[in-house]
Design brief:
2 copies of one chain form a homodimer. By secondary structure, chain A is of the alpha/beta class. Helices cover 40% and strands 17% of the residues of chain A. In chain A, strands 3-2-4-1-5-6-7 form a 7-stranded parallel beta sheet, with helices on both faces. At the A-B interface, helix 1 and helix 5 of A face helix 1 and helix 5 of B.
């Protein structure tokens, strides 16, 4: 379908232009921006709830939450103590840079250390849309199966970190961490895989360390916004 | 992003035209066509494996398998005894009618009772692309959470049946079948929900009955193809 590919390229190019402006704005404000993507129900919101609770006294954090419908996830994040702005995509399959620019009206970026963007639950389309972020995280979960990296390679290839959630269900789901890690290595040899259970709290320290290191790497404001 | 919406409408209209031709072709051949969609890892392939094994002596069946990458799922279905033709979407987020038309070269439709189309693992985009099917099935799984119907309403609204898989993990995943069913009812009051575990086999009889009834409703060839 070459027609479709041409149309999509034009859309992505326009998005890239806006994303470059966003990236510049994040840098001037000195805020780390992390874009989280996953299949529906892998645990992006649970990860942000845990992050809100654990890192609130270290960092000034906020979130942008993309959903097709409802504001359930945004409310969960707010209840966990992190300000969260909802973007309702009305059925749209990914967040784009224009939507993020609009949502940023809710925040003074200079007053933030970290902004998390929780993308629409979709392991395919969000990967094609740059939001100007510093770091991209794929959240995968054990019941989805250990073949997800090889079956959805684009999302993994463009990620800076994989959070493998629901390790508490791994045995019952017949999940092989070894097969999963081998799949990740085939796609991107140096991509870190952090095994966690947002439910039991196991492994979350590794995620909090990763966030703190990413925050340190971005540093402080380059200039006044 | 009105520009995007206009472009997508043109694509969907062209797809609808081809889908109408497909629907006509299915009817002339008297073959029931079922389009399965779900999040990544919900269990579409496992359901087709079980169907291949259990219904092989009742129906002449075949499958079309859509994946971003690899032919793993197609091989699983073939190993279970059902002919399967792979469509590799090269990163594309859904199957479209044109791809199905090309894949149909592999089959003589008159020699089939049922054709299953396993869509790309994505709970958003496949819902917008008619493949001419008689029945649309959403496969959901308990570890994804009981909020999926309200959070991804379009896929559920356009479905004729929901297969709720991985009931064996429901308790460990903290899944409420009641909340899930209430969400489904809010979106489409008469949408049947079949609870199954492809792993243990529990509940699969209900699915096999649903398939047999759908097959009966479609009937025999309307005319020679």
């Amino acid at each position: 379908m070459p027609k479709r590919i041409r149309l999509d390229k034009a859309i992505v190019t326009e998005n890239d232009r806006l994303a470059a402006r966003l990236a510049d704005r994040y840098d001037r404000a000195g805020v780390l921006v992390v874009n989280l993507m996953s299949s529906p129900g892998a645990g992006k919101t649970s990860l942000l709830e845990a992050t809100a609770r654990r890192l609130a006294d270290r960092f000034r954090m906020a979130a942008i939450e993309g959903d097709l419908a409802t504001d359930r996830d945004a409310r969960r994040i707010i209840d966990a103590g992190m300000p969260c702005r909802q973007i309702n995509t009305s059925g749209g399959c990914h967040l784009n840079a224009k939507q993020v620019i609009q949502a940023l009206d809710a925040y003074r970026l200079h007053d933030l250390d970290i902004l998390f963007i929780e993308n629409v639950g979709n392991l395919v389309c969000p990967a094609a849309f740059d939001l100007g972020e510093h770091r991209r995280v794929v959240v995968s979960s054990t019941p989805e199966g250990d073949d997800k990296p090889v079956k959805y390679p684009v999302a993994f290839r463009l990620a800076d970190c994989v959070v493998l959630n629901k390790t508490d269900l791994a045995e019952a789901a017949g999940f092989s961490a070894e097969a999963f890690r081998a799949g990740v290595r085939d796609i991107k040899a140096d991509l870190p895989v952090l095994e966690v259970s947002c439910k039991t709290g196991e492994g979350l320290t590794g995620w909090f360390q990763w966030v703190a290191e990413a925050r340190k790497a971005v540093g402080s404001p380059a200039a006044a916004e």
